[in-house]
């Protein structure tokens, strides 16, 4: 009888967790935007480069620094900005980069227009290995259309910011140095990110609090393998570095 009761409890509890994540996804989606550039005379006029999310007063957007590192063609009126909405109804809103933290691969944009719903930041110092997370963004961008995609993930490790070698034999002095005295640590996730996911918020699936920013996926072999044969290992920058970036306006 106890076993039957336990099974009934588990059966009842599982959908509740799924329902909660579904509600959180719906609440965070309006705050998650595409990052791209627009140039009227270009074909296509709009080029998608990554994902970002809204914080603070609703006009501040966070993303990965490598997403906005391309030099704009100012002479031909190329403009950086965000895409709000989804699918064919997505609209471009111009913005400017107001702060960049290259060390932690973070960038801040200010956008024009009406304020958007903002996500709240959690304390990433409290994140533990084994903690459940989710991230939402636009993998593969306009190839699949501007539609939000969410992945579940577990914090597999909190590890020094270093690219893992293919084997222990490939560890050399250059790779060992950050391990001996790491500059900072990142979240290693078992969720699969794809090109376009960079800049997505990593958040608690129960509360929607943001604890990190998707930075990169570990790629085996050529970069194209990130699409055809993803490793299933993704890294995220801890969100407390965002707090240090935000006041820089």
TrEMBL record:
One record GO biological process: proteolysis
Entry keyword annotation includes Signal: yes
Secretion signal span: 1-18
Domain of life: Bacteria
Pfam family membership, one: Trypsin_2
GO molecular function list: peptidase activity
Keywords, ordered alphabetically: Hydrolase, Protease, Signal
UniProt KW Repressor keyword: no
Protein name as it appears in the record: Serine protease
């Amino acid at each position: 009888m106890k076993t039957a009761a336990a099974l009934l409890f588990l059966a009842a509890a599982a959908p509740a967790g799924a329902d909660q994540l579904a509600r959180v996804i719906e609440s965070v989606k309006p705050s998650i935007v595409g990052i791209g550039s627009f140039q009227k005379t270009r074909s296509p006029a709009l080029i998608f480069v990554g994902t970002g999310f809204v914080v603070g007063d609703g006009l501040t957007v966070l993303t990965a620094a490598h997403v906005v590192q391309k030099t704009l063609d100012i002479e031909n009126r190329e403009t950086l900005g965000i895409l709000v909405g989804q699918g064919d109804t997505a609209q471009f809103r111009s913005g400017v980069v107001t702060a960049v933290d290259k060390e932690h691969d973070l960038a801040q944009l200010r956008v024009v227009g009406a304020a958007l719903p903002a996500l709240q930041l959690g304390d990433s110092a409290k994140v533990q290995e084994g903690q459940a997370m989710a991230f939402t963004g636009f993998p593969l961008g306009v190839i699949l259309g501007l539609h939000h995609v969410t992945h579940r993930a577990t914090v597999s490790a909190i590890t020094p910011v270093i690219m893992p070698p293919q084997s222990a034999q490939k560890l050399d002095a250059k790779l060992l140095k950050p391990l001996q005295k790491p500059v900072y640590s990142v979240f290693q996730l078992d969720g699969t990110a794809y090109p376009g996911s960079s800049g997505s918020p990593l958040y608690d699936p129960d509360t929607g609090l943001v604890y990190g920013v998707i930075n990169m996926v570990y790629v085996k072999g050529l970069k194209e393998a990130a699409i055809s044969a993803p490793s299933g290992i993704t890294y995220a920058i801890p969100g407390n570095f965002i707090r240090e970036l935000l006041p820089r306006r």
